[in-house]
Amino acid sequence: MKLDIITPYDSEVKVYKIKFKNLTNLSVGGGTIESAMSPIDLPIAKREAVISHTGNILLLPYIPSSTLKGVLRSKYEEYNFEQGGNSLISFRELLRILKDVTDLKFNDKLEIKEKIIDPLLQDFLESSLYDVNIESLEVTGRDGISGLIDSVLDGVRMPTNWSSCISYVDGLKCEFPMPRYKLSILKSLAVEKYPCKVCKYFGASGYEGRIIVFDALPVSKYLINSSTHNAINRFTGAAANKKLYDIEHLEPGTTFLTFIVVETKNKDDEFIDWLSNKLKNSYLIMGKRSTIGYGEVTIESVEEVNEEVNAEQELENSALLTNLHNDLVEAVNKFLRGRSNGQGSDRAQ
Ligand SMILES: [Zn+2]
């Protein structure tokens, strides 16, 4: 069986305009410099912007493209997990398959232990409680916990169709160059395409994906607020005395605008189908404090853009128009012009 390595290409680009709105408080942080400069403990991400009509400078809240790309990646991962839901195998079955791989050298087995077996088991058990026999890739337990180990080995399920690699286990993520032990695993799992459907678009270590996500900027009025929280003592679970910190957030109801550029070559592109048909009206969770309900966001619209975009037209409240809005739109228009001239795109990030 031949493993088909999907190579990135830039034969055609499609540009999508996405608008989303936060339904609850939204607190997406920025870089460390912003944190160091703000009087608030956990400030939201802001960039200095010049208001076009007045020349005044303001700090404009925004959602960094890296945050947005991460959130969309999880959502697409989730979708692919659901799609490939009937070809899951258990951790034990994976070990059984690995045992049967004949071309695994000792070093490959050591890597499998360190990068796959240990990280998965350590989620459930302390490493002193189990033993891995590297030669046979057999897991045994200490003192009456074999049953627990059995249930972990049976219970942790993973997809075998590689529709979405397992991003929380280092050894099961897509990566380039591909270590030899992974090639053996992929072969035994009869994987035909690499990287997985998610990394194909969102990229993996050593692999450039096929989408570019831009920073999202507010296009409606917004209100920045902050609230004070108790730090929780992690030993007692009680509120730590006098350990208060404040966290900045945007009040619900801010509409953001962003663009995604997708490189594609066929008409039935699965990602484009997901983007234009499944993403609209769906909910995303973004930023800090999601455990107390922060960061609920709904996708209001996803539209393919075919003509050049006008920054002023995109803004409901044109008093907000800034150089950042103009820069965003100009960067996107470059892709649109490149497409109509039949030239290859030059990547913005
Ligand atoms: Zn992957």
Note down, in words, how this protein is organized:
By secondary structure, the protein is an alpha+beta fold. The protein is built from ten helices and 16 strands. The relative contact order is 0.22. Bound molecules: zinc ion. Zinc ion binds near residues 165, 173, 174, 195 and 204. Keywords: Antiviral defense. This is CRISPR type III-associated protein domain-containing protein. InterPro entries: CRISPR_Csm3_endoribonuclease, RAMP_III_fam. It comes from Metallosphaera tengchongensis.
Mean pLDDT figure: 84
State the helicity in percent bands.
25-40%
Uncertain segments of ≥5 residues (pLDDT<50)? 343-349
What separation lies between the terminal Cα atoms?
36 Å
Number of helices: 10
β-strand number: 16
For the report, how would you describe the main beta sheet?
6 strands, antiparallel
Cofactors and ligands: zinc ion
Outline type: globular
User: What percent of residues are in strands?
Assistant: 15-25%
Order of helices and strands: EEHEEHEHHEEHEHEHEEEEEHEEHH
Radius of gyration: 24 Å
The computed structural class is: alpha+beta
Total individual domains: 2
List keywords for this structure.
10 helices, single chain, six-stranded antiparallel β-sheet, alpha+beta, CRISPR type III-associated protein domain-containing protein, binds zinc ion, 349 residues, RAMP_III_fam
Write the layout of secondary structure elements.
Blueprint: E1 4-5, E2 13-22, H1 32-37, E3 46-50, E4 57-61, H2 65-83, E5 88-90, H3 91-100, H4 106-122, E6 130-133, E7 138-141, H5 146-155, E8 157-159, H6 180-188, E9 193-194, H7 197-202, E10 211-213, E11 217-218, E12 224-232, E13 239-250, E14 255-263, H8 270-278, E15 283-285, E16 296-305, H9 311-314, H10 323-340
The protein binds zinc ion (ZN).
Residues 165, 173-174, 195-196, 198-199, 204 line the site of zinc ion.
